[in-house]
Write a structure and sequence with these properties.
This protein has helices at about 35-55, 65-85. The chain is mainly α and about 90 residues long. Involved in cell division.
Length: about 90
């Protein structure tokens, strides 16, 4: 079987120009607000629905009637929307 060709090393004295230098992205310091806001929205939505059922449609907003369920699920849906910003 033939032996593979040995590659020569490139000259190590080459220094990249400053124009080609890449900027480092700091991903560790981003978006600390996302997790607390997401959990808060989930909690508000769940609490809204639970309070609605526990008070037999008197609270949180009696005038909305069964639309209170939609409002509760709306808060939960907003929590999922916010969760897409988590890195």
């Amino acid at each position: 079987m033939p032996k593979s060709r040995v590659r020569k090393k490139k000259d190590d004295s080459y220094a990249p120009s400053e124009k080609r230098a890449t900027t480092k992205l700091d991903m560790s310091s981003g978006r600390r607000w996302v997790a607390p806001l997401m959990l808060a929205l989930f909690g508000i939505g769940l609490a809204w629905i639970v309070v609605y059922y526990m008070t037999k449609a008197d609270l949180p907003v009696g005038a909305l009637g069964d639309w209170n369920i939609v409002v509760g699920f709306g808060f939960i849906a907003l929590g999922f929307v916010v969760s897409t910003q988590w890195k």
